[in-house]
Amino acid sequence: MKLSTMRLLRVLAALMALSLIAAACGSDDADETTTDDAAVETDDEGTAEEDPEEDPAMEEEEDPEEDPAMEEEATDAAGGGNVSYGIVEPSWIDSFNTQDSEGFEVARLLFDGLTDYGEDLSPVPAVATDWSSDDNITWTFNLRDDVTFHDGTPVTAQSFVDGFNRVANPDNLSDVSYQGSYSAGVAGWGDVEAGDATEISGLAAIDDTTLEITLEGPLATLPKILSHPVFSPVNMAAVEAGGDSYTDAPVGNGPYKMVGAWEHDVRIELERYADYYGTAGLPDTITFGIYDSQETMYLEAQAGNLNISEVPPENITTATDDFDGRYIEVATGVINYLGFPTQQAPFDNPDIRKALSMAIDRDTIIDAVFAGTRAPAAGFAPPLAPGAIGGCANTEYNPDMAKEMFDAAGGIPGNTVTFWFNTGGGHEVWTEAVANGWLQVLGLEAEFVGQEFSPYLDQLQAGEVDGPFRLGWGWDSPTAENFLSPIYGSESSDNYSGYSNADFDAAISEFKTSPTEADGFPALATAQEILCEDMPVAPMFFSRGQKVYTENVDNVIHSVFGFTLLEQVEILG
Amino acid sequence: MFRYFIRRLLQLIPVFFISTFLIFLVIRIIPGDPIQAQFGERRIPDNLREAYVERYHFNEPLWKQYFLYMKDIFQFDLGDSIANQRPINEIFRESLPRTATLATMSVFFIALFSIPLGIFSARKKDTFADNSFLVITLIMLSIPPFVLGLLAQLFVGVKWGILPVSGVEDGLKSYILPSLVIATSLMAVDARLMRTTLLDTFREDYLRTARAKGLTERRVFTVHALRNALIPVVTVLAIDLGALLGGTIVTESVFNIPGIGFRITRAVVQRDTTMITGVSIFLVMAYLFINLIVDMIYAWLDPRIRYD
Fold first, then answer.
1. Cβ contact (<8 Å) for B262 and A265?
2. What pLDDT is attached to residue B271?
3. Which string of DSSP letters, residue by residue, matches A293-332?
4. C-alpha span between A446 and A430 (Å, rounded)
5. Residue B121 domain-assigned?
6. For testing the chain A interface, which of B96, B102, B166, B227 should be mutated: the one with the most A CBs within 10 Å?
């Protein structure tokens, strides 16, 4: 049987037509027209150096209406224009479920909570002008009366009550609801999470500008914890009107508002909110370009299509050259540590734990495995965290003392430990380097057990882990305490080493009940000193974040939370 | 014709149920906890885990989960992605046009290059040009697409700035570079096939007959040789198109094109089991549907098929 070519061509044509129908259906038609315009915009941007008339023109258009309102000083000099910023796809940009650093970058521009924090990481007013509490349990927040959502609706105390209730509502599956129940300990938050109540009992909107929050126990750092986007106000009318698509175009109250909806895996576009109550941001518009890999993001920045990019690990050594020194590296609040099962012999002996910690050459491992892009952990909280003390002696590499102490404590039976880690997180190489150090210094062999994270946690929780184990922790609020009580508190569910020390718990509770955070620092220092002596875990390293930027932007500031202060980026004409 | 159509349609039903059930089963027995995967290295509060389990019916027996899933499928609802609770239908509406554009353009480029190259090579059989053609296609076949993709991005996109480096924001222009990359790795096969079948046709009796009838060499070649030699090439092009519509994982990832392949990769990395199931079942349905259409076209073209 032979069909003529023409007939076969017809088959192919029909198939191609089918796929074209597929291409045409769906919303991409609209997509393409809008993105064509966008392409023109970015082209302008990329060639901004060549025709400088473009951007200043935009500035003149926008600035006069914004800046007179803000009697803010020299900032308008560099205002205007668009900054494009590379991120990977966030999981959520709606404040009720902001959880990853990418989502955080967007949500912090869309939403303003009661508080923010200043350069020294102390809480500063945002929607709340001031706050007070006699016992650190019942807190009163006084709110501004000139704050509006991006649709013009006023932000009141009730907007915060609604926002918090929305987070706690189990139907909404907020992954970060624990911030309210566990981190802040708002009374009744947990009951809503559990489905036992529909409204958080510890919240009261006294009037439009007075919000009262009652906690389960005293907490001096509450204003700090409330700076997280999850504690943002919500305009429930907008949520209901937006339906399922609301989370892709949330209506916030921050310095920037959404332009259109989030185009998943493509872009998120923001523009300055004209009626913002605070200091207006410098860029007129902010484009978040979404990339699947840091490699592509970096290439786009090299091509001049993206102003600020992350740096893939393999480019860290060349980034300074690639971008003529426009490279920034900042320590962030993420720690990796090796925990010990402190309830099991021989790890119940602090000397064994100290010896193991001192036998780790952190500097060499970081240089060899991470090309120096992490900071060795000398203590239990990163130095940038308010209340952190300097290092512990027991985290310094001291092979002789380690060997001596190890032998004096009786060593480890069979001279073998089981070394637990979770697979898929890039922990294979450095944990092996640690084991090599133990072999050289202590003559200790290691048998590795690598597991998926979920069964790994289950076994940790069940106390089945019988050797050193790797874990990490990232902070939710800028306090040293956030690195201590969750990991080492006797009652904490994230305490996997089984460590329990009444003195430590007492010091933490003294910190929490102290009138202000600073008043509690001595107690916090005591808590850290206790840890230095007990070494329930061996702190390993703190993460660092890297960014590069192109020559048409300046004043790129990377925060210790891992995001860039985009509202302060200056665009150079 | 109608009876043939009904017969083919009825055959699809068991195929559909068996294949979807197998997919459903396989994805659920993959080790690893999809709920934990959404939390990275954080512990999930118990009440939140319960809420997830309930929302996604993970607490039901497998047969019931499948039943509930099928109930939704028949309402054309593929469910929600577990990673960000977006409707999978919506993700498809976004991804499919992109993948279809990429596939169509790739097949266009494959045809554009492979057919003339194959013809050229066949006509210059055993010359230096033909031999170098064979070597070059071999090289093209063996370069991994991601290497080719990265090189293309670096030179065409970054250094020369001719085409966009990545993304889908420049309309059809965005798809040129990735399509060329796909075409480069696939067209070697098509070009070689073109060459071989053309050489085979050159030996056919009907060519000798045509020449004996006194037709010009040009007419002998275009009407008699080329037309017949194109048949298998067109078939392979159609197969290419079908395969590309399933998404090209590597190229879509390298070029940051959020199509089907890109989303599958993401879903696998994130252990987004509902998404993986949705994509797989959608692809099964798409293949079944396209096959049905192709069978219909063949049957329409050749009456012998529908009466077998």
1. yes
2. 83
3. -HHHHHHHHHTTS-SEEE--GGGTTTHHHHTTT-EEEEEE
4. 13
5. yes
6. B166
Residue A41 has pLDDT above 70, yes or no: no
Using an 8 Å CB-CB cutoff, list chain A residues near B55.
173
CA distance A469 to A482: 21
**What is the pLDDT of chain A when averaged over all its residues?**
85
Domain assignment present for residue B175? The answer is: yes
Average pLDDT over residues A93-115: 92
| Structural domain that includes position B240 | 93-270
Assess whether B57 and B106 both reside in one domain: no
Asked if A516 and A539 touch (Cβ cutoff 8 Å), the reply is: no
Q: Are residues B131 and B264 in the same domain?
A: yes
Q: Look at strands A285-290 and A82-87 and give their pairing.
A: parallel
Question: Are B36 and B155 part of one and the same domain?
Answer: no
Say how many domains are in chain B: 2
CATH code assigned at B131: 1.10.3720.10
Q: Is B293 on the interface with A (CB under 8 A)?
A: yes
Mean per-residue pLDDT, B292-296: 81
Chain B segment 242-271 residues within 8 A of A by beta carbon are 242, 245, 253-256, 258, 262, 266
Model ipTM value: 0.85
**Interchain CB distance below 8 Å, A299 and B242:** no
Q: Is the pLDDT of residue B152 over 70?
A: yes
Residues 184-203 of A with CB under 8 A from B: 193-195
Q: Chain A residue closest to B31 (CA)?
A: A452
Cβ of A1 within 8 Å of Cβ of B101? The answer is no
Q: Which residues of A touch B150 (CB under 8 A)?
A: 295
- pLDDT exceeds cutoff 60 at A572: yes
Alpha carbon distance B177, B165 (integer Å): 8
> Same structural domain for residues B101 and B244?
yes
Q: Give the C-alpha distances (Å, rounded to integers) separating A49 from A45, A83, A284, A569.
A: 8, 14, 18, 17
Cβ distance A193 to B45 less than 8 Å, yes or no, reads: yes
B14, two tokens: 């068991």
Residues of A in contact with B255 (CB under 8 A): 296
Q: Is residue B303 part of a domain?
A: no
CA of A386 vs chain B CAs: smallest distance (Å): 23
Q: With 80 as the cut, is the pLDDT of residue A334 above it?
A: yes
Chain A closest-CA separation from residue B28 CA (Å): 16
- Tell me what the mean pLDDT of segment A476-489 comes to: 89
Confidence of residue A22 (pLDDT cuts 50, 70, 90): low
